[in-house]
Amino acid sequence: MRIDFTQGNVERKLWAFSIPMLVSVMFQQIYNIADSMIAGRFAGEDALAAVGASYPITMLFIAVAMGSNIGCSVVISQAFGARDYVRMKTAVTTTYIACAVLSVVLSVAGFLTSGPLLRMIQTPENIFADGQLYLNIYIGGVTFLFLYNICTGIFNAMGDSRTPLIFLIFSSVGNIILDLWFVIGFKAGVAGVAWATFIAQGASSLLSLLVLVLRLRQIPTEGKVPLFSGMMLRKIVVVAVPSILQQSFISVGNMFIQTLVNGFGSAVIAGYSAAIKLNTFAITSFTTLASGLSTFVAQNVGAGQLDRVRRGFVAGVVMAVCVAAPFFVAYFFLSGPMVEMFMENGGSAEALLAGQTFLRIVAPFYFVILIKLMADGVLRGSGAMSWFMVATFTDLVLRVVLAYVLSIPFGMGSVGIWSSWPIGWTVSAVMSLVFYIAGVWKRKAL
Known about the structure:
- The protein is mainly α.
- It has 16 helices and no strands.
- The two termini are about 30 Å apart.
């Protein structure tokens, strides 16, 4: 089912489009959480720490894939909104060619640098070997990661958020079953967790590609559709590169923060690994809603209907608040049981305290960061990428600098690291909201 955002009730269409996307990302995060949970409960605290230490590095690859997803989605949405199906199909094939090359380059680079990167973030020796093993298997599936994200971006650009949901449910359930089979049945430990993700994601991405090809063939076009366009690639890059930089800088920032965390030992690493997976669940949910809003904005910009954008922003904020409320309640009031889910026999006291403290500090500020993400959705959908980058990089720089300053010179330890999140979120949220209210997105669209 494809949704045309350029006409009809704004709120109803955004909800109809966003709910499948939200359910989809929830399934994705559930199986990411299951990876860590199964590793921690059935392979031990060190296995949980090894997966967690690798996490900011794997996020670098995810960052590039997600940025590519956003870049192609915005350009294809604009072509779809303008009913220019030849341009839309050229954008699709151009994206696939470019991302195929990029994924191969990143895979080679990843294999060559996995060890040095883990050394750089000062991964403790007792978890280093498992961390590198997990990372290398994960890197082997980077092409599948790109393929799935690009397919999802194209489906969403055409207003179809249900098809990606079906494939995500298939991948998530398959991943969890394989996790249990490899880790409990074969005692494969961290390697089993990695291979489960590799196989499940690979199968889902190939099926997504098959369905997408069949779907595109049903859209009639006149004349021959060019398979590659340098001009189209430049348009995609204009949107994708800032998004990739945003995600990559966040990942690099997380690597610096992981370096700090690693200095407190494997118990704190394990607690942080559990808490950051839960936090990522919440933030990714908000980001998904913002991506849906970007598609809405892009279609309406392509159709020249800018008045609908403001209503879309308000509807997006309302949706995000509804999603944030249960995360806040669970993480703030039930932080202990949430972290314990990841620990074998309840976990060590130090690991539990680290995870609980992180969640209780950041959870109240979900209602702040969601405002930034929704404003970013408007900026990104309209193509106002420079403003989007300013607010995002401000958040990142503040969080990294404050994590170091508060934890070491101010002597706050790990609590200082956790406290950097709310400050960075608040400052960047104010900036993004000011940019939205000032109408920079409208001037860019015009």
